[in-house]
Amino acid sequence: MSGVAAKVAKDRAVAEGLGTNKNAVKYLNQDFEELRAQCLASKTLFTDEKFPACPSALGYKDLGPNSPKTQGVVWKRPSEIHPNPQFIVDGATRLDVCQGALGDCWLLAAIASLTLNRDLLSQVVPKNQSFQNNYAGIFHFQFWQYGEWVDIVVDDRLPTKNGKLVFLTSTERSEFWSALLEKAYAKLNGSYEALAGGQPIEALEDVTGGISELYDLKNGPNDLFQIVQKALRAKSLVACYTIKSSVKEENETITSSKVVKGHAYSVVRAEEVIYRGGKEKLIRLRNPWGNLEWNGRWSDEAPEWNDIDPKLKAALSKKSDDGEVWMSFSDFRTEYYRLDICNLSPDILTSNKVKKWSLTQFNGCWKSGCTAGGSVKNTATFWTNPQFKIKLDQPDDEYKGVADEPCCTVIVGLMQKNRRKQKETGAELYKIGYSLYRLENRTEVQLSKDFFLKNKDVARIDTEKRYREVSRRFKLPVGEYLIVPCTFDPCQDAEFCLRVFSEKKTEIMEVGDAVDADPYKKPTKTKLKRPSWDLDNPPSKPLTRLNRKRGYSDEPHTSNNDVNTDVKNIFEKLAQENNEMNVTELQIVLNRILSNRRDIKSDGFSLSTCREMINLLDLDRTGTLSFVEFDILWLKLQKYMEIYKKVDINCSGTMDSYEMRNSLQEAGFTLNNKIREIIVQRYASDDLLINFDGFIACMIRLETVFKMFELLERKKSGVINLSLPEWLCFALV
Predict the structure, then answer these.
(1) 491 an active-site residue?
(2) Per-residue b/e over 371-394, b at no fewer than 16 CB within 10 Å?
(3) CA 384, 390, 394: angle at the middle one, nearest 5?
(4) 260 has pLDDT over 60
(5) What is d(CA 18, CA 255) in angstroms, rounded to the nearest whole number?
């Protein structure tokens, strides 16, 4: 219950602007300004208890407490490492990012790219931090995480060996901003070891909030060079990397041409020059190690520079072992295998001269037994995945489509959340993907299995690769589309963030987010046929089948007088002297009736479920049921038993949680995925099965809460207001 309330409160805060770059979420509720002020007032240096300088901060396996790699590590503040520590020396540059004893070159490549854009850097590395003014041993940085910006506080104790930093360093030994930024990112992900291994695009997104595009350099489009140029002009961050060897020992080894295997690089420039009467495409790369440069064509000492315009040569060629080097684009596509482009989100771009994307996003989750239906290959459950509708009604200014049909450019990205942080527990990235379907008719309700059996997707991202995010650029005709995000296998629990970047503004909404109820109510003109037996003489055959729509009998009715008499006899058999039945008596009478039902397998109703029944109908607050109230309850139970029987055809005594969705709908309840998830958590077993008692308890509970809301919603606005005592009274029912 408290978790649900926290989620609702968070959603409301986000709607009010929390999580933007200018109003970042305080990670672990640590406020930098407050903590620094406290330290300055007490004249103490900050000690971060939520990410302490101890073995657990280093790692859990290769960098675990008993690992040889962590022996001799001493945590020191910068003043203990250098006599005159500085936060930033002469501006942050790519030379400030040199890899240490941690396989996080993917992160370093992103940080190096970040230094090329001062505006971006200042949003990740807030200003007014130093070791001189208001120094209190505390610093903070901001990262984007799954749709929101978070502000992360760290103390400045850093791991060292023999007085030198173990991990990221700057070529300027007195400079510490990059090492502290690495520590903040390690805190965000649980430890330094959690940063070992990754893709540059992941870090690029986390320092920009942008969305990725991935290109295979061997099979990329013919205009890939132009795409890179356009991306760099739009201030996008670009990275690439060499093929990772299946033999672990071969990674980060150096080839004869000085290219590092299994290594990430930043792409910093792309230029076209006139060379020997023709055009030559050149690309400039940055090695985060700060040295080891390509030594082939167009490298620092290559003869090709002598055959271009001297002024252009002076502007482009720089002979220094700084990790940056030019190479021809053709050699680049041979030596490297993938290129990543991170398109920046509109809130991070400050310049009005740069064309900005429009962004819409939605956070959701896959839950076993409810919304984790697996890929489209799982035809029985694929339709239960979350469904989102996007409306594209504004074509690009310059579009290209079939027969000049107006088209919209969109980049759709699906990201699974927090898997890196869960590496310590053995969690791995899932195979994720999504499918897009063209909607010919407007819909606000979740589409059923029949829709997906009859309609083919118009685009999809395959679910065969384990990436944190899968994304792709599409040109789609104007219209409405359905996006169905999924994991490859069903019943894989994970949270996700779905984002759509578009050249023009678009809308995204979750399909089936409406909540409503129209449960069975006692007929006013005709009555259900009730059983004609007493407790000691049950019938030899099961109850007659009830009408599917509203619960009416298919067979001729007995007279009202006979019906009332039969039910009253049952009631009076166990009712108290005041003609009221308490919860224990209700349990006895219902379980006796249920025990004689051959068409329903059940161990009987629990006392808790019987209390739910009384709560629903006990309007006079006696804690008991009168005959009239019992009469209504019996009608409802017959209706719900018929629904249950239709699902539990083999009388196993259970239904699976996916079947529960259809049962809820037939009972008159329209629910969204969040409510369905709560139902599965509350009423399903570990193997995602719901027994008869749980099914009835759920139906009665839903009727109760809808009824409570209806009684309290005086203005019919969809909102109720309760005082704390009132809320407690209703919540404890």
Answers:
(1) no
(2) bbbbbbebeebbbbbbbbbbbbee
(3) 165
(4) yes
(5) 48
Query: Please, is 98 exposed, middle or buried when counting C-beta atoms within 10 Å of its C-beta (0-12, 13-18, 19+)?
Result: buried
* Cα 678 off chain centre by: 18
The confidence score (pLDDT) of residue 283 equals 96
Q: If you ran DSSP here, which 8-state letter would residue 423 be given? A: G
Catalytic residue selected from 39, 105, 486, 610:
105
Q: What is the mean pLDDT of residues 62-80?
A: 92
Q: Strand locations in 217-336, DSSP E? A: 237-241, 264-275, 278-286, 324-328
Pairing of strands 148-155, 25-26: parallel
Tokens of 683: 């009423």
H-helix or E-strand containing 215?
strand 211-216
What residues contact 553, with CB distance under 8 A and at least 6 apart?
A: 528, 529, 544, 546, 547
Domains parsed from the chain with CATH numbers: 2-208 (no CATH), 211-343 (3.90.70.10), 358-513 (2.60.120.380), 560-731 (1.10.238.10)
Specify whether 105 is catalytic: yes
What is the percent of the chain with per-residue pLDDT over 70, rounded to a whole number? 86
Question: Taking residues 493-512, what's their average pLDDT?
Answer: 87
User: For residue 553, what is the DSSP state?
Assistant: B
What are the E-state strand segments in 9-82? 25-26, 74-76
Tokens for 67? 């690992």
235 in Cβ contact with 437 (< 8 Å): no
Across 298-421, the runs of DSSP E, i.e. the strands, are: 324-328, 338-343, 358-366, 388-392, 407-416
Q: Which residue has the tokens 């309330």?
A: 5
Active site residue 54: no
Neighbours of 716 (CB within 10 A): 7
- List 117, 189, 240, 287, catalytic entry: 287
Find where tokens 């990221």 sit. 168
Average pLDDT, the chain: 84
Of 240, 263, 407, 673, catalytic: 263
Compute the distance between CA of residue 689 and CA of residue 656 in angstroms, rounded to an integer: 4
